[in-house]
Amino acid sequence: MAIKFLPLYFLLLFSCNQNNIENEAETSSEEISDTVPDFNYQLNKEDTKYDPGEELVEISGLEYLNDSVHLCIQDEEGIVFFFNLRTENVVRKLRFHGQGDFEGVARAGNDLWVLKSDVTLYRIINFTEENPRVEKHTTRLGEDQDAEGLCYDEKHHRLLIACKDDAGINNKNKKAVYAFDLNKKEILEQPVILIDSEEMREHVLDNALDEVSLAVREAITLSGSKSFIRPSAIAIHPADGSVFILSSRFSILIVLNADYTVRHVLSVENDHFLQPEGITFSSGGDLYISNEGNNLTPNILKFSQRDK
């Protein structure tokens, strides 16, 4: 399996001449270290790969329920799928709405919350009941934000909503994460996290490797530096409160400290990362990432937390 796992140093090299690019193309990706200091997962060595089957080809949101069952949301269907990892089949379908562009699911106590891309939220109250009640919560944000990531922030009793497009603050260089207060049932006025492309560049400069990924660098060069990060999923580590933000475009993972300062900016390429759209943690800190099929076989990958 060809694997590349590296900080995004290549963003700083847009001006490299063709001769340099040709020389770097000869470098084997196996020479690049697949481990990063202060990062307890080896994303090129998943412990288990689960097959969701044809029923869950386009998983757009993933949430840990227990060691056996994960919750899945699929594009265009107002259904929460309860997927059993051990048997690799759907054991329950909980319909909460008709068709729509649903992108994330999060559990907060006895309730489930589902995110629609226009930043509408659906609350499924006491979801373990046979026919739970559903509430719809509209927000002041909308389709321009194109929200895709949702997770529960237990410390502050709120939901975090990661937006793929317009940050809503007249700044196209930044991507926003908003908070939805579960007591007041409203979105806070200002984003709680802003992903600044210039800050990412500075972090990459301070943590550069000598070897880079030619294929990804070329893709980002073509896309332009302002659009290489488009958040598709978000999760909070249960132990240290660090925030993992996944961008399916170019398979980028941003790790923030609990105070939202940048810890890592990583790029991952391997055969199993088809289109990463879901991310969640077990209570013990194991990491799960789901990939849409994108005309191939979808998967859910488990990465056990390792001690450094």
Tag the structure with descriptive keywords.
single chain, 308 residues, mainly beta, 5-stranded antiparallel sheet, globular
Characterization of this structure:
9% of the residues lie in helices and 40% in strands. It is mainly beta and 308 residues long. A five-stranded antiparallel sheet has the order 1-19-18-17-16, covered by helices on one side. Strands 11, 12, 13, 14 and 15 form a five-stranded antiparallel sheet that branches. The protein starts with a strand and ends in a 5-residue tail after the last strand.
State the gist of this model.
The chain is mostly beta strands. It is 9% helix and 40% strand. A hairpin with a 4-residue loop joins strand 5 (79-84) and strand 6.
Helix content: under 10%
Distance between the termini: 24 Å
Give the strand tally.
22
- Main pleated sheet: 5 strands, antiparallel
Estimated share of beta-strand residues: 35-45%
Number of helices: 3
